[in-house]
Design brief:
By secondary structure, the chain is mainly beta. 4% of the residues lie in helices and 29% in strands. The chain has one helix and six strands.
Length: 139
């Protein structure tokens, strides 16, 4: 079993590792996932720092008919490294290149976005370029 680092949407149920015993047949060796736990990622003080940045620790046992067991541990560092993607059916808003007046200023278009890991919030932020008069008066 190898340690892994993955993007949170890559995470799936792990296959059971294989084990063999010098005295038992393959059918007589039982492999079991005995523990799976989550903890904050290294460098995070708590899981709320980023709910999709954490470490999973898995412990498997392989036991033969005589109850002799071996254990293996795997750590998986999970991180949300993929940014949300805008997903508007009509495409993204285009720049308005023709001059507009205050009366004809278009309303902002509603936006949609998706994220592989988390709920997300879309915010609208407005910015207006100062006019030449405003720039001249600010000096």
């Amino acid at each position: 079993v190898t340690d892994a680092t993955c993007v949170s949407d890559d995470l799936n149920t792990p296959p059971l590792p294989e084990a063999e015993d010098n005295c038992s047949t393959d059918e007589e060796v039982t492999v079991t996932l005995i523990e799976e736990s989550e903890s904050p990622a290294a460098g995070s003080t708590e899981r709320n720092d980023c709910p999709y940045r954490y470490t999973i620790t898995r412990v498997w046992s392989a036991c033969d008919n005589c109850n002799r067991c071996s254990y293996v541990t795997q750590t998986v560092d999970v991180d949300d490294v993929v940014a949300p993607v805008f997903s508007n059916d009509d495409g993204l808003p285009t720049n308005v290149t023709d001059p507009v007046t205050c009366d004809t200023l278009p309303d902002p278009e509603p936006m949609c976005a998706t994220d592989t890991c988390s709920g997300l919030t879309i915010t609208f932020d407005s910015w207006e370029e100062p006019s030449a008069d405003d720039r001249a008066n600010s000096d």
